Amino acid sequence: MRIQDYTRLILLAAIWGASFLFMRIAAPQFGAINTAFLRVLFGFIGLALIMLVLRSSFNFAGKLRAALVLGVINSGLPFFMYCLAAKWLPAGYSAILNATTPLMGAIIGVMFFSEKLTARKWIGVILGLVGITIITTLGESHADSNVLAGVVACLVATGCYGLAGFLTRRWISQRGGLDAKTVAFGSQIGATLFLLPFFAFSVAYEPEINWQQPSVWASVIAVGLICTALAYILYFRLIADIGPLRSLTVTFLIPPFAVLWGYLVLGETLSSGFVLGAVMVCVAVWMVVGPGKEKMAAR
């Protein structure tokens, strides 16, 4: 990997780490489905403005349908799941569970994309599952009765991310490729269209929501324009440059930023059980995505 690739990974981690803070602020006030829809909507608007300013092409080269479906898998469903989790879990919890994305990617790759795992990577997957169990059973949260539901929601989201990485390679990269901004723009169109009916239903049947909250709107706009529009351009560019599995290593860097933002802004703290589970998950991710002895020897 080049220096610019590492730089983009760190920047992307800092941005996506902040997204858990913004969702933690917005989801309890606006609701999970509304927050998820507004996130992809502002992401769509932000990407459209960026592409207009840069005079980028809106030609999908026959890959529009693929980009729309990727939007549902890589944005619509995961964002809804994380907004659900944000109602119950501190930002740090969601972020460390987000770090299981490479583990999910490894499992999905073996099951559906003929990927092979070494013994080390299998040990990493098992260790990651043990770490998740410790977080679920020993970690403390502000809503203890909903911890399991929040964890499951996060794991559904990471499963979607893992699947989307391989589908992006198969549907986009291996078919002539497509500009990262165009892929990200198409994905936000797909996510917006997918969540729109649920948003309309929610607004119609949840009139008690207080929409006049400037700080919440600021969080929604930030998570849409910065953590979605800008971040997805970086992410799809990374997939094209370094591949899906390496791109998923960004999730290894997100938790420290999410914990930092949560501590500075919301005063969130972490339990000893969470710390133990988080360390196990991080070690597991390193075992899955880190270079093996053969690659190090080759270098």
UniProtKB/TrEMBL annotation:
<dbReference type="InterPro" id="IPR000620">
    <property type="entry name" value="EamA_dom"/>
</dbReference>
<feature type="domain" description="EamA">
    <location>
        <begin position="9"/>
        <end position="136"/>
    </location>
</feature>
<comment type="similarity">
    <text>Belongs to the EamA transporter family.</text>
</comment>
<feature type="transmembrane region" description="Helical">
    <location>
        <begin position="36"/>
        <end position="54"/>
    </location>
</feature>
<dbReference type="Pfam" id="PF00892">
    <property type="entry name" value="EamA"/>
</dbReference>
<keyword id="KW-0812">Transmembrane</keyword>
<feature type="transmembrane region" description="Helical">
    <location>
        <begin position="216"/>
        <end position="235"/>
    </location>
</feature>
<dbReference type="GO" id="GO:0016020">
    <property type="term" value="C:membrane"/>
</dbReference>
<dbReference type="InterPro" id="IPR050638">
    <property type="entry name" value="AA-Vitamin_Transporters"/>
</dbReference>
<protein>
    <submittedName>
        <fullName>DMT family transporter</fullName>
    </submittedName>
</protein>
<feature type="transmembrane region" description="Helical">
    <location>
        <begin position="66"/>
        <end position="89"/>
    </location>
</feature>
<feature type="transmembrane region" description="Helical">
    <location>
        <begin position="95"/>
        <end position="113"/>
    </location>
</feature>
<keyword id="KW-1003">Cell membrane</keyword>
<feature type="transmembrane region" description="Helical">
    <location>
        <begin position="247"/>
        <end position="264"/>
    </location>
</feature>
<feature type="transmembrane region" description="Helical">
    <location>
        <begin position="270"/>
        <end position="289"/>
    </location>
</feature>
<dbReference type="InterPro" id="IPR037185">
    <property type="entry name" value="EmrE-like"/>
</dbReference>
<feature type="transmembrane region" description="Helical">
    <location>
        <begin position="180"/>
        <end position="204"/>
    </location>
</feature>
<feature type="transmembrane region" description="Helical">
    <location>
        <begin position="122"/>
        <end position="141"/>
    </location>
</feature>
<feature type="domain" description="EamA">
    <location>
        <begin position="149"/>
        <end position="289"/>
    </location>
</feature>
<keyword id="KW-0472">Membrane</keyword>
<keyword id="KW-1133">Transmembrane helix</keyword>
<feature type="transmembrane region" description="Helical">
    <location>
        <begin position="147"/>
        <end position="168"/>
    </location>
</feature>
